[in-house]
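Hey L., structure's done. Input below.
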Amino acid sequence: MKSFSNSKMLLKKSNQYLAAGVSSNLRLSVKPVPIFIEKAKGTKMVDEDGNEYIDYIMAYGPQILGHSHPAIVRAIQEQAEIGQTFGAQHQGEIDLAKRIVEFVPCVEKVSYCSTGTEAVQLALRLARAYTGRKKIIRFDGHYHGWNDTISTKSTDEKNSISYINPKVKPATNGQCEEALNDIIVLPWNNYEVIEKTLKDHKEEIAAVIMEPVMCNSGCISPKQGYLEKIREMTSELGIILIFDEVITGFRLGLGGAQEKLNIKPDLVTLGKAVAGGLPLSVVGGKENIMDLISNNEVVHMGTLNGNPLCTSAAIASINYLANDNGRIYSYMKHLVDHFVLELEKLASRFELPLLVNKQETVFHTMFTSEREVTSYYQFQQRNKSMFSRLAELLLLEGVAVRPSGLWYISTEHTKKDIESTLKIVEKCFHKLSKEYK
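Output:
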């Protein structure tokens, strides 16, 4: 049994100075204790108690090249020697923008931020300024950051044609309820609902924002024809379509989900994997929309926007991923396919109701009686506590997984990592099957 005495001691000490003892409420869900990491390299993390983990959290997505990748370390070191931030322009901003325009289909120009939350706010501001309208359609289960103007409490509404949009509720105490007056929340993957809403409010809606693949909640794919119909209707009505690719950008491929699905939005937000682990986000899209920033119609501010350390890491990461025509993505996909197949075999053997939804280099595991999960409502019915318990068992055995069930693969994961993990999963499935008889 692993000891977590140092992590427990550090959490107690941290609570004296740091609210909640952690820097994100999400990290509080880790059991038996939020672990404190001493160092990380490649696919491995080592905590302050000396415990080593095969990591599938990957910093919640950004570490697509694994931890402390030589290309990233070298780029940061070289940039740090000549300057960390300038409050002025530099060549790295241009070089990175050129790479993003080259690879992401909808992007003609970009603007930089530091977080995904900021990028979403800029995209919404651009959409409202461009259309002269105020209302925004978003979808239940999609995550667009924690800002007051977009973060909403999930509903329990089934994904039905008879859906009636309820009063939008804030996601947390302290949130300004009035800030959500222009937000319409709909169930995703149901075209009849959004078609009716777009027709009923066509003169008011500035934008439709969505994860093109619902990675954050179940790795759910859009139903056949769903995005195509939304793209057609938003174009006809002059409504801006925004793809939030903070997760899927540079993780599902160099062109993100929009390239994979062959759907071009008007605007896209990028983050996480774009900078190989450093805090950088991007808004990109059509030139005529992005130029609202150029002529000061839309004000975009930020002291650390386009930070040289971040742009250098992003360029290094994208160059590495693009090498040999992006061949590394095929390698990662092959690992995921093999990994998921073996997980399903093990679950069947132990009679555990495991369902896996996968999207290239990321996949979601859940315990559910459903044979397929295509809606957020179905995803919400999964046995959350059962998977949380599995995540705890895995951590005790040296595998780090998000308690929600989301797994990330990096370029540095190997077949050996997968085989070692499967042996641990087998052991944990055996314990779990006894606990949930």
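The two ends are 24 Å apart (CA to CA). The chain is about 40% helix and 15% strand.

-- N.
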